[in-house]
Amino acid sequence: MESSQTKNFTLKYFPIRQDYVYAQISTQMKETDFNQLTGITPGETQSADGRALILCFDQSGSMSGKPFEALQKGAIMIGESIFATKDYEKVSVCYYDDSVHAMEANDLIGYQKYVNSQCIRGSTNFVAVFKYIEQFLTQYSGRIRDVSVIFFTDGQDTCNNKEVIEKSLQNLKAYLQKNNLNSRFLTVGFTSSHDAPFLNRISNTGSELGNFFYINTDTGDYSQQIQECLSQSVSMAGRQDGLALNISSHAFELKQKLNLQKNYVIEESKENEDGDGDAEMNEEIKMDDNANELLEFSEQIIIREGALQDLRGELVFGKKTINITFELVHVENPPAEVLSRAQIKYINKLIFETVQEIQSDIKVRTHTELLEYIMNLDKELDSFVESSMKIKDRDLRKVIMEEIGECKDKTSKVMEVLRASTGGRINNVQIAQLNDLAYKAVRKRGLQKKLDERAVKNEGFYKKLDQQLKGVAKKMDFKALREEYKDLIDMIGSCPISTNDLIQTMEESDCMCLGLDVGRSEAAIADPTRLVIKDIIPTFMSADSFLTVAAFTIKRNEEAHGGYDVKNQGQLALGVGRENITGIMPLYLFKEHWEFARRKAPPVYGFITTLDVMGYASSQYFTVPYLVLLKALEKNNSQKVEIYSKIVTLVLETCKNIMSFNEEHRKMAIQQIVDFHKNPESRTADIVASIPVMLAQLYVITLVENYESYLPEDFKLDQPTLANIFRFAFEEHSRRCIRSDAEILTKNTILKALFPDYATYVDEIMKVKEIEIQNEFKKDDKQGASSDQFSEYTSQANFFKALDQANLKTISNEEESNEEEKKEDSKISGGEEKKQDEKVDLIKAADDAVAKLPWQNALKIDGSDSLKLVSSSQKYFNKKQQDLIILANLLKVGDLKGFGDLPQINNDNEVMLSLFLQNAMNPKNHHRRESIQNKNYREILNTQDSQNYLRNILLSQLRNEFAGRESAIRSVYLGAKSSAQVQLFLDAPNIYTAAAIMCQNHFSLGQGDYSLLIQALIDQSLTLSDARGKLQLVCQGQYFGTKLYKDAFKIYPANFNPCKTSLYRLYMKLVKNGNKVTHEEFLNLFPHIAAKAEVWDKVLDNSGKIAENLDWFNLHNAQVKQQKLQEKNQRLAQQSKKLKF
Fold first, then answer.
1. What is the DSSP string of 35-51?
2. Are 638 and 322 in contact (CB under 8 A)?
3. Global model pTM greater than 0.85
4. ∠164-166-172 over CA atoms, to 5°?
5. Where is this region: Disordered (predicted)?
6. For residue 252, how many other CB atoms are within 10 A of its CB?
7. What angle do CA 874, 879, 880 make, to 5 degrees?
8. Cα(584)–Cα(998) distance, rounded to whole angstroms?
9. Which residues, in sequence order, are bridge partners of residue 408?
């Protein structure tokens, strides 16, 4: 690596116990310097160059069924995240069984295609995976500098012994160290059968501490667990915003990589400045991008005190490094909160080390000593509670108390496992539980990484907002506002918690908000459109009051917020009608109030979306209000109560204000709508996260003053354009409402929907076609038939006789004419000639059926599959998506009451059938994208489009059905013909005729003729003539240089030996029981089984039982065992010799 200048870092430390210290490493620099070091421009993230992700998924036989289905769903899910974040230069997906099947994925489509192509295979081979990882990194040697490996398995290596597996892992670790690669291994152990200790060692293989997940399949539905574990692993592997610092100490053999978190420094002078509300009014709610901001980078670690004496460090930026010098500062009296956190972090470290010792082969302490040790740690944590309660800062006190609680959970669970272990023995499941527990702190950092990164950014941001709020309040004339907005103040009323009215709330630098009942899944952390507005509560309360009460309620009941499960009902506050309130929305009531509301919105949205006020992202600010607007419109439409009409006005005014005064948001919203209208590829879920939110933004745009001036010159929001947008939106949203476990429609399902009588129609056509095919085969048979069934083979048989020098004297001219055959041919050509002219054209039959548009009649029949598809899909959409229908009506797309009322559809069931059928054929997002890219997707805007689409679909499926049926019929007759030819071979009077039959009938291994011949030789052994000769033909495959099998071999084999079982059965039938072949003749044909045949000859009776020469048999077995043992010892000796220098 290239090394350049030196930088100074501060390392403050204080001792905690024994020879360990708690150290804080930090530095400060201007944002311009940071950008210069990292090579990024403001607003961008660090480059993905040099970063690789390797996904290793188990596809062994034990994963078959639901486990593999769940894994595949998880793999598809994380793929969208991987390629959306663009965190990696190289992504490799590796499925493994007894070997590795891998590909390098360059885009999401290629990744999804490869994942979907995988299936269950053989056994499990970890060694092959480790070798592949090394080969992949070697391929990009010098280019990849950071690699993350996600390793998923449900079992243990069944292909290699323990020593080989361990050596392979150590070789990989040595390779990573030798090439100075930053690396981390994130393992997922699935089921109780996985090797928990070994997966733990894999987690410790990288330069950074990895992670271990344990998925307990006994809990029932583990599909969601798999998806969460994979998602968290990907999150932990992603880029971190900060400084990468490597520290080392030769004295203590210390090597550790740290990520110093980035934060903004709030200077004293700036903290006291008043925010200019008017100047800030039109700015987007986001972090100030001033390039001269001062940044601080810091991280806290536990380290041996002796390591400080020769501690060295280097910052890593790609291939460039910067040497670090540390200014050591000993802290005499650390603050109580810092001391508490240090002690908790140290106990977490001790718990982790204890879990590692429990599963180690070398144990320093006994089982009883370990249990007592953990009990003492638990008591020590109790003593921290009292000291932590004395911390004055409420927020810090809350954080530390939570950390103590989490640490106590660990100690109690470790004690539970140790007590439950029998006789001090810890089984695999218990080890897995302990590993899962020990890595919890690491995992929490990974799971919360998005939130932590936001917290780092938002901490300084919130401080700025607080200062601005104080400045805004100082400039307000609250008396004048009270007089001006008297009616509005009366309508809003007082906050049910603080009892302050609107103006009193503003005097406290707070704002009034609308009450909500919300739910969310973990997906809402990354995608705020996943937030669910369950209900709007006609109660107005202040932001601070809600957040304060929420914090207090959660402290008493940690599930009060409802968690990351939409189905759970939270209860954080009560409305005036005692309704459950779990969220709020700051409102635009008037200009002065908005000065407070827009600054209070970030922590509120952060909390209701991620359950963490520090989890705010600007995407929430531009999403949540539109979600509330959709719910308000739906509520007002269904209940027709005046208060909801007023709420719609307030929420709409808030959204309109956000759209009007945030140029970047407005540009993005308009561009998304333009792309959505023009290009089908811009309508899928990876481009438009939420169709309802997009349409709500469209509605708000049309309310912005002079909105036409913001639109592109070639794009107008006239009625035809709006109609098309809603037509595409309704179709796409309907597709997304399809069940998540839905599969692509099968051929039979499509045919039944479009052509209910297809089975009868196809059967009638194929009956005639089968007669035609039957006549074809009969003609072939009659052409070859004669009174002497072997006459057509005479010429070829004589040729073989001529080649057999031993039979030259017996050659005779046996060429005879066959008048009967000629007569029969005449009958065929005369009587069958008309039938030849009446061939069934299956393509025409399919065309004729489609030309009648059979789905039109089906749509008129109650209970038909096509009508069910239309009615059920339309009914579900009309019931669940009233908000979209309301928006369409507000924009005067039409007087819509449901999906079918769209102008392009006009309740035409044929059009709706084509739309819903196309959706059902592309239920998943990647299905739709593939359909678009393969040009199979059709935009259906009218009846003609609909008919063309349905005609093409039905024609394709019907032709496939005919082709499949014809192929099946021909296979039956070909099989019958093959059986007849095999029987003819068996009945042949001599070897020459038998060889001629094989040659002229084109026998083939690929068509199964060889298997039929072997089985027939076994089954009809007693009636065979020249059994030795026919066995020779079948197993040698040639006669006097003429190849008897017509398969396309690159090199024609010298022989075709049957399997061991078939050889045994042939020997018993032809040699032992039938006397058709002598023992010596059999060995001449199959010399490789001489030893086995000797045993069969001497020991077995005619029934195959061991009954003769028992003494000889026992002696023979002993000699065989001794020989195998000698061969094994010789092989081991040769290996040992090779390993010596």
1. HHHHT--TTPPPP-TTE
2. no
3. no
4. 100
5. 811-839
6. 17
7. 100
8. 85
9. none
d(CA 495, CA 506): 12
According to DSSP, the β-strands at 254-264 and 242-249 are antiparallel
CA–CA distance, 1027 with 353 (Å, rounded to integer): 74
Q: In what order do the strands lie in the sheet with 211-215?
A: 100-105, 90-96, 51-58, 146-153, 182-190, 211-215
669 within 8 A of 659, measured Cβ to Cβ: yes
Q: How far is CA 1016 from CA 514, 980, 1035, in A?
A: 84, 11, 13
Q: How far is CA 156 from the centre of its chain?
A: 22
In angstroms, the CA 496 to CA 955 distance is 66
How far apart CA 151 and CA 96 sit, in angstroms, is 10
Q: In this structure, are residues 1028 and 1069 in contact, taking their beta carbons and an 8 Å threshold?
A: no
The values of phi and psi at residue 57, to 5°, are -115, 135
How do the residues of the chain divide into helix, strand and coil, expressed in percent and rounded to 5? 60, 15, 30
pLDDT value of residue 820:
44
**Is there a contact between 640 and 648 (Cβ–Cβ < 8 Å)?**
no
Which position has the token pair 């308009």?
Answer: 670
β-pair partners for 580: 574
C-alpha closest to that of 280 among 596, 589, 707: 596
The token pair that represents 742 in the structure block: 């839905």
d(CA 1032, CA 1084): 10
User: What pLDDT is stored for residue 649 in this prediction?
Assistant: 94
The string of DSSP codes covering 927-970 is HHHHHHHTT------SHHHHHHHHHHHHHHHHHHHHHHHHHHHH
Local structure of residue 422 (DSSP, 8 states):
B
Q: How far is CA 388 from CA 33, 338, 382, 395, in A?
A: 39, 10, 10, 12
Give residue 449's pLDDT.
Answer: 45
Which residues of the chain, if any, have pLDDT below 50?
A: 1-3, 43, 268-291, 441-450, 452, 784-787, 806-837, 1135-1141
Which positions ≥6 away from 871 have C-beta within 8 Å? none
256 token code pair = 């550790």
Tokens of 189: 């152990």
Helix (H/G/I), strand (E/B), else coil: 517: strand
Cα separation, 432 vs 190, in Å, equals 10
Rounded CA-CA distance 779/222 in Å is: 61
Taking the C-alpha atoms of residue 938 and residue 924, their distance in angstroms, rounded to an integer, is: 17
| Other CB atoms within 10 A of residue 486 CB | 11
Nearest to 947 by CA among 846, 854, 843, 849: 854
3-state class (DSSP) for residue 1034: helix
The secondary structure element, H or E, covering residue 920 is helix 909-920
Q: In DSSP terms, which residues pair with 215 in a beta bridge?
A: 190
Q: In the chain, what is the straight-line distance between the N-terminal and C-terminal CA atoms, in Å?
A: 34
pLDDT at 46: 63
The pLDDT, as a whole number, for residue 539 is 93
The helix/strand/coil state of 57 is strand
| pLDDT per position as a tens digit, 427-462 | 666 666 666 665 554 444 444 444 545 555 666 777
Q: For position 474, what pLDDT does the model report?
A: 86
pLDDT at residue 797, rounded to an integer: 82
Contact 358, 431 (CB under 8 A): yes
Residues 6 or more apart whose Cβ sits within 8 Å of residue 996: 793, 794, 795, 796, 797, 799, 800
Characterize the bridge pairing of strands 182-190 and 146-153. parallel
Q: Tokens 């819509």 — which residue?
A: 896
Give me the domains of the chain, ranges plus CATH numbers: 51-244 (3.40.50.410), 492-661 (no CATH), 988-1108 (no CATH)
- Give the pair of three-digit tokens for residue 389: 């309660």
CB 74 within 8 A of CB 227: yes
> Per DSSP, what are the bridge partners of residue 25?
11, 299
Let me know: does 718 contact 899? Beta carbons within 8 Å. no
Q: Are 315 and 245 in contact (CB under 8 A)?
A: yes
